[in-house]
Amino acid sequence: MSNRLLPDPLPRCRRHGRMRLRPPETREQEFCGVWYRCAAPECAATALVASAGLQAQLAAQSLPGAAGR
Ligand SMILES: [Zn+2]
To answer: How far is the CA of 69 from the centre of ligand 1 (A)?
Structure first.
């Protein structure tokens, strides 16, 4: 298999299912990870697969004091 760069499972829209890759528009989005958008044009659903950098940042923020000692 050569799809190790893709998240597993892929994000899905709750109403329409399939989602498409959405190129990042800003450096912030690019940093955050891979964005997906619902394939249905009338649907504004998006999903974010967090990058390793963002996950590390979130982990550091969501554990107040836990990593202190
Ligand atoms: Zn949708």
So the answer is: 44
- Residue 39: which domain range? 19-60
Does 68 fall in a domain?
no
Distances (CA, A) of 19 to 23, 27, 43, 48, 52: 13, 22, 10, 11, 21
Number of domains in the chain: 1
- Average pLDDT over every residue of 59-65: 79
Look up the pTM and report it: 0.65
For residue 54, CA distances in Å to 7, 15, 34, 61 come to 15, 27, 11, 10
Tell me how far the alpha carbon of residue 23 lies from the centroid of ligand 1, in angstroms: 18
Backbone angles phi, psi at 31, to 5 degrees: -65, -40
